[in-house]
Amino acid sequence: MVSIKVKYVVEDRDRHGNVRLYLGRKGQPKIRLPGPKGSLAFFDAYHLALDGRFVPKRRGKPDQPTRHDRKSIRWLCVQYFQSADFKRLDPRTQRVRRGILERFCQNKNDGEKPYSMLLPRHIRKRCDAKVDKPESANGMIKALCQLFKHAVENDLVTQNPAKEVSYFSSGSQGYHSWTLEEIRKFEKTHPVGTMARLTLALALYTGQRRSDIVLFGPKQVRNGWLVFTQQKNRNRSPVDMEIPIVPELRRIIDATRCGAETFLVTAYGKPFTANGFGSKVRAWCDEAGLPNCSIHGLRKAAAARLAELGRSEYEIMAITGHKTSKEVIRYTRAASQKLRARNAMKDFAYGEVETQSVPLSSGGELGGTKLTAKSLKDNGNEDFWCPGEDSNLHILANTST
Predict the structure, then answer these.
(1) What 8-state DSSP symbol labels residue 7?
(2) H-helix or E-strand containing 279?
(3) 259, 254, 280: which is closest to 201 by C-alpha?
(4) Which pLDDT tens digit goes with each residue over 214-273?
(5) How far apart, in whole angstroms, are the C-alpha atoms of residue 120 and residue 134?
(6) CA 79 to CA 77: how far, in whole Å?
(7) Could you give the count of Cα atoms lying within 13 Å of 55 in the half-sphere of its Cβ?
(8) What is the pLDDT at residue 49?
(9) Which of 23, 88, 114, 303 could crosslink 235 through cysteines, CB 3.0-4.6 Å?
(10) Extended beta strands in 271-312, E state
(11) pLDDT category, 381, cuts 50, 70, 90?
């Protein structure tokens, strides 16, 4: 059974061996919490206990949270947390969203104010206070939008005030997309046969998130294809995927001592958790001297390389699993620009003969760079992999500068 760690929560056993849960903060009396740990009742009581909203019951019994005003924002949050829409979210998404809404309620005791009186200008004012943290402000807007969507659907309000609040532009390009040089550096540090190198291959040749990569194993392989359902939003809006296992990925899997259930395993032969896997990849990147690289950056690199090969947005979406092209365009913007620029200039020439098009060069040169037989081809028609080479994962990297 997976042990759940929650800040300030301690466990005691009585003389009968029963586990009792307490919220214990330094300098404050312990507060008994209902079990089991991780249940909805536990987290409801935990968050209310952090806010000091408990009425003591008789000794030996768990404290119970007070009832909230049915018109308050906090009451609306409790109703949302108990809804099917919230329960269908991934556990991590539930924790993040619950935390955002709890902090919103705790600020200046806003949770006790009537939810029907919350206006867009109130939310904008809260966002203005987070101007230096645009992602935090955007997360608050999104959480409030879902909260009031629930309220509208249940006829508690007629309008969603968060829908009228614009998101901040973060100015960030998101996770760093690995370059050709960085992939080669990682390969040099982690040779074929290691878990690190297999991780690189799985990420590049499938373009999937870490939550999916850690689950890949023999059970997902069918007739040379990986067949699986993406973990993200699997309960609300599942995305079923089928991706061919290219020869180079097959070669690296065969050369690695994999686990029985999953390809990737820890030093103890156990499957990785998504969080533990992220930390391990961070350590592997640090060993290779790549502080800016992450596992998600390989997903971006795979999408960017497909764009450089001239694949359409819908073809790339068939690999990444995105339902709309918005995120794919963001991933591949630089690679697509390079491809369009190359296509625009390939027949361009300026010479003395105005009525005749003269090739810019006839010896395989473009912009002063001579292309050799071993260079990466940029005609958009080369293979997705280069079988037979030991260090060839770099062909999927975003090589644009």
Answers:
(1) T
(2) helix 274-287
(3) 254
(4) 999 999 999 999 999 999 888 888 999 999 999 999 999 999 999 999 999 999 999 998
(5) 17
(6) 5
(7) 5
(8) 78
(9) 88
(10) none
(11) very low
| Selected residue with higher pLDDT from 105 and 355 | 105
Task: Say how far apart CA 69 and CA 211 lie, in whole Å.
Answer: 39
DSSP 233: T
Q: Which of 188, 201, 190 is nearest to 264 (CA)?
A: 201
What domains are defined for the chain?
18-65 (no CATH), 73-164 (1.10.150.130), 180-346+378-396 (1.10.443.10)
**Nearest C-alpha neighbor of 124 from the set 161, 99, 85:** 161
Is the link from the previous residue into 36 a cis peptide, with omega within 30 of 0?
Answer: yes
Question: What would the pLDDT profile of 281-307 be if each residue is shown by its tens digit?
Answer: 999 999 999 999 999 899 989 998 898
E strands in 225-325: 225-229, 240-244
Q: Residue 394 and residue 217: Cα distance in Å, rounded?
A: 24
The pTM for the full model equals: 0.60
Nearest to 395 by CA among 235, 270, 246, 192: 246
What mean pLDDT value characterizes the chain? 81
